UniProtKB/TrEMBL annotation:
PROSITE patterns hit by this protein: FERM_2, FERM_3
Record's bilayer topology term: Peripheral membrane protein
Signal sequence, start to end: none
Binding positions (a 1,2-diacyl-sn-glycero-3-phospho-(1D-myo-inositol)): K68, M69, D70, K71, K287
Localization per Swiss-Prot or TrEMBL: Cell membrane; Cell projection; Cytoplasm; Nucleus
Name of this protein: Merlin
Length: 552
C-alpha cells in the first residue's frame, strides 16, 4: 500500500465569520456540518456553557433569521459570501437575570447586547434611568472612581446615552459627564460582574426588554397590530404603542400554538376562551414567530421543573465562584484599603517630613536673617554712633552759629538802630539844609535885590552927578584934559566919600554872597556823599539780615 493511500482525505471546508457584540472570530467549517456543529464550536471558543440562551443570526433579503441547529449550514438559505457572516446573539432572555445567568461570560454577553439595544433605542429607557445605567457601565469598564485619575473629559469617547436623550435635553457633553460621574462615584467597591448584573437587573424591568416585535393583522388585508414574544408569553400591541400590550397570553395559559402558512393560531388553556388567530406578511415571519414561541415556552417550562444535574452543577460552581470572588474581592478590598491607608500614612509622613524640612529650612533662614539682622544692627549701631558724634559736632557748630547769629543779630539790631538814628540825623540835617538853603536863598534873593537897588542907586547917583557936573561946569566939556578930581575932592568930598564907601560895601557883599554860595555847594556835595554812604550801609545790613534768616 502506498504512503499516499494511507493519508486521509482532507474534508472540504468553508469559512465563516462569527461576530459577537465586542469581537469577531473566523472558523473553518466542514461542508457537512450542521448548524449545531458550528454553534458548539463557537460556544467552546467562548467558554460558554449556558448555550440555550444564544443562537447564530444572519440576514437574508433584509430580514433577520436564526440558523437552524438540525440542518446543514450550507443547506440553509444563508448569504452567499466568503466568509459567511453570522452574529452570535442572545435569542432568548431570562425572566430573572440574577437567578438564571450563572456564568460570568453569559452575563457579560447579555450586558453588552442589552446595552447596545438601549443605545440603539431598540429598548426604550427614561433619561434618568439611562444616566444610572451609564454609571454602572462606566463602573464595569473603569473600576472605582478616582478623581486624580478620572479627570474631566475621560468619558468623551464613550457612547453611554441614547441620541434621543441627548437631543431631548440641551446639555453639553461636560454636563452629562458630570451627572454620570456623580452616580459613578457612589459605586465604589463594586466589581465588574456586579456592576454588569446591576445594569441587567435595572434593564430587565423595562417594558421593551427581551421582546421580539413582529407586525401582524387580525385579517388578511390589514397590518394594524404588533405581536411581541418574550420569556413570559405572547403580547398583542397597537401599532403605535410598544409599552402596554392590549392583550397578553402567558405561557402557562396557552394550550396550543399552531402555524399554517401565514396564519398562526393561539389556543388558550381555557377551552371556553376565544381562539386568537392572526396573519403575518410572509411565511418566513410566521415560522420565525413559531420558533421563538417554542423556544421561550421550553425555557418557561424548564424553569418550573427540577434542575437537571448539569444545571445543578453549574449553579453550585457559580455559587462557589461567586463565594470565591466575593472572598477575593473582600481580600482585594482589604488589601486596597490597607494599601490606601499605608499610602495615606506615607503621604502623611511625607507631608510631616516636608513640613519639618520646611520648618527647618525656615528656621535656618530665620537664623541667617537673624545673623544678617545682627550684623546690620551692629553696622547701624556704629553708623548711629558716628551719626551721633556728627550730630553732636553739628549741634556744637549749630550752637556756635546760633550764638554768632545772635551776636550778629544783636550787632545788626544795634547797627540798624544806629543806622536809623543816622538816617534820622541825616533827615534832620537834610531838613535843616533845606531850611538853611531856603533861608540862604531868601537872603541871597534879598541881597540880590539890595545889590540891584544899590547899583540902581549908584547909577542914578552917577547920572545925577554927571548931570550936576554938566550944569555947574559946562567949560569942562571943552577942556577934557582938566581933571575935576581936585575940584570934586574939594567941592564934593562928602558925596564922593559916600559913593566910594557904597562901592566898597557892594563889592564886599557880593564877595560874601559868592563865598557863602560856594560853601553851600560844598556842604551839599558832602551831604550827598554822606547820604550815599548811609544808603550803602543800610543795603549791606539788609543783606546780612536776609542771610542770617536763611541760616536760622
Amino acid at each position: 500500500m502506498s504512503i499516499r493511500g494511507l493519508k486521509k482525505k482532507q474534508p472540504k471546508t468553508f469559512k465563516v465569520k462569527i461576530i459577537t457584540v465586542d469581537a469577531e472570530m473566523e472558523f473553518s467549517c466542514e461542508m457537512k456540518w450542521k448548524g449545531k456543529d458550528l454553534f458548539d464550536l463557537v460556544c467552546r471558543a467562548l467558554g460558554l456553557r449556558e448555550t440555550w440562551f444564544f443562537g447564530l443570526q444572519y440576514t437574508v433579503k433584509g430580514m433577520f433569521t436564526w440558523l437552524k441547529m438540525d440542518k446543514k449550514v450550507l443547506d440553509q438559505e444563508i448569504p452567499k459570501e466568503d466568509p459567511i457572516s453570522f452574529h452570535f446573539l442572545a435569542k432568548f432572555y431570562p425572566e430573572k437575570v440574577e437567578e438564571e445567568l450563572l456564568q460570568e461570560i453569559t452575563q457579560h454577553l447579555f450586558f453588552l447586547q442589552v446595552k447596545k439595544q438601549i443605545l440603539d433605542e431598540e429598548i426604550y429607557c427614561s433619561p434618568e434611568a439611562t444616566v444610572l445605567l451609564a454609571s454602572y457601565a462606566v463602573q464595569a469598564k473603569y473600576g472605582d472612581y478616582d478623581p486624580n485619575f478620572h479627570e474631566p473629559g475621560f468619558l468623551a469617547h464613550d457612547e453611554l446615552l441614547p441620541k434621543r436623550v441627548l437631543r431631548q435635553y440641551q446639555l453639553t457633553a461636560e454636563m452629562w459627564e458630570e451627572k454620570i460621574t456623580a452616580w459613578y462615584a457612589e459605586h465604589r467597591g463594586i466589581a465588574r460582574d456586579e456592576a454588569e448584573m446591576n445594569y441587567l437587573k435595572i434593564a430587565q424591568d423595562l417594558e421593551m426588554y427581551g421582546v421580539n416585535y413582529f407586525p401582524i393583522a387580525q385579517n388578511k388585508n390589514h397590518t394594524d397590530l404588533l405581536l411581541g414574544v418574550d420569556a413570559k408569553g405572547i403580547h398583542i400591541y397597537s401599532i403605535n404603542n410598544r409599552f402596554s400590550p392590549n392583550k397578553s397570553f402567558e405561557w402557562s395559559s396557552i394550550r396550543n400554538i399552531s402555524c399554517s402558512e401565514k396564519e398562526l393560531t393561539i389556543k388558550p388553556l381555557d377551552k371556553k376562551a376565544e381562539v386568537f388567530k392572526f396573519f403575518s406578511s410572509q411565511l418566513k415571519v410566521n415560522k420565525l414567530i413559531f420558533q421563538l414561541c417554542i423556544g421561550n415556552h421550553d425555557l418557561f417550562m424548564r424553569r418550573r421543573k427540577v434542575d437537571s444535574i448539569e444545571i445543578q452543577q453549574m449553579k453550585a460552581q457559580a455559587r462557589e465562584e461567586k463565594a470565591r470572588k466575593k472572598m477575593e474581592n473582600q481580600r482585594l478590598a482589604r488589601e486596597k484599603q490597607l494599601r490606601e491607608e499605608a499610602e495615606r500614612a506615607k503621604e502623611e509622613l511625607e507631608r510631616r517630613l516636608f513640613q519639618l524640612e520646611d520648618e527647618a529650612r525656615q528656621a535656618n533662614e530665620a537664623l541667617l536673617r537673624s545673623q544678617e539682622a545682627a550684623e546690620l544692627l551692629a553696622e547701624k549701631a556704629q553708623i548711629a554712633e558716628e551719626e551721633a558724634k556728627l550730630l553732636a559736632q553739628n549741634a556744637a557748630e549749630a550752637e556756635q552759629e546760633r550764638q554768632r547769629l545772635e551776636i550778629t543779630a544783636l550787632k545788626s539790631k544795634e547797627e540798624k538802630r544806629l543806622m536809623e538814628q543816622k538816617m534820622r540825623e541825616a533827615e534832620l540835617i537834610a531838613v535843616k539844609l533845606v531850611k538853611e538853603s531856603d533861608r540862604r536863598a531868601k537872603e541871597a534873593e534879598h541881597l540880590k535885590q539890595d545889590l540891584h537897588e544899590a547899583r540902581e542907586a549908584e547909577r542914578k547917583a552917577k547920572q545925577k552927578l554927571l548931570d550936576i557936573t554938566r550944569l555947574n561946569y559946562p567949560h569942562m566939556a571943552k577942556y577934557p584934559q582938566y581933571s575935576p578930581g581936585d575940584s570934586r575932592d574939594a567941592n564934593f568930598d562928602k558925596g564922593s566919600t559916600k559913593l566910594d564907601l557904597k562901592d566898597i560895601d557892594l563889592k564886599r557883599l557880593s564877595f560874601e554872597i559868592e563865598r557863602e554860595r560856594l560853601d553851600y555847594l560844598e556842604k551839599s556835595r558832602k551831604f550827598e556823599d554822606r547820604l550815599k554812604e548811609l544808603k550803602s550801609e543800610i543795603h549791606a545790613l539788609k543783606l546780612e539780615e536776609k542771610q542770617a534768616g536763611l541760616y536760622c
